[in-house]
Amino acid sequence: MTHSLHRRGTEESLKDDYVLLVTSAYGFNHEGSKDKMRKVLEEVFAEEPANIGSYDTGTILSGVDIQEIRDALNDVPRVRCSFSTKEKMLAVLKKIKELDQGMSVTVSGLTEEVLDMAKELEIKPHCINLSLEVWGNVEKLPSEEVLELVTMCGHGLISSGLVEDCIEKVKKGRMTTRDAAIKISHPCVCGIYNPDRAEKLLEKYVPLKEEELA
Asked: Which end of the chain, N or C, is less surrounded by CB atoms within 10 Å?
């Protein structure tokens, strides 16, 4: 799932950020796979993902409930979501393995952490994809702080202008970090944007209190 590979940031900020894609394969096992994927969806949702969504409905961060996502599964059903802890990601993968529905499973995260989970679950990864940075006239890119938030939507639907506006409102105390994290999430409809990581990234902009300045 290459659109999840371009998340930017330090190892510290990325260590609790995992993306999961579960999908059937068109022309191979997609026929009759909706019910199988609904079972996967139920197990995924039980582990309380940070975000989960659908192209057809939007995400839970925009007010969509899991039943709407369940009903919107199409003929080649997919589950896309993000988790904020390795423990939850590991628990979900264990459940999916036990279900054994024959679906393709892709996990994005720090390579060492993902391989560690695969080893614990006795799974041999089929392949590993890596991002090789951004090439071209990189001087035209937004600041690194903005890119950390923008690149959590791999389809490029989150604009730098939206992020910059939310950062300014957080700096001025006009918006909480959580509200800003949710607002930034709205254009990303598939569910891989992680609001918990976004909130942590935005905390650096919270105005200092008088006692902290003293």
From this structure: C
Tally of CB atoms within 10 A around 128? 8
Segment holding 178, helix H or strand E:
helix 177-185
Rounded to two decimals, the pTM is: 0.92
Mean of per-residue pLDDT scores for the chain: 93
How does DSSP classify residue 186? T
pLDDT tens digits, 94-142: 999 999 999 999 999 999 999 999 999 999 999 999 988 889 999 999 9
pLDDT level of residue 56 (50, 70, 90 thresholds) = confident
The helix/strand/coil state of 118 is helix
CATH code for the structural domain at 2-120: 3.30.70
Comparing C-alpha atoms, which of 105, 126, 80, 104 is closest to residue 26? 104
DSSP conformation class of 66: H
- Where in the sequence of the chain do the CATH 3.30.70 domains occur? 2-120
Secondary structure, 3-state, 92-103:
HHHHHHHHCCCC
Give me 26's structure tokens: 């068109």
Length of the chain: 214
Q: Report the distance separating Cα 125 and Cα 106, nearest Å.
A: 9
112 vs 18: CA distance, rounded Å: 12
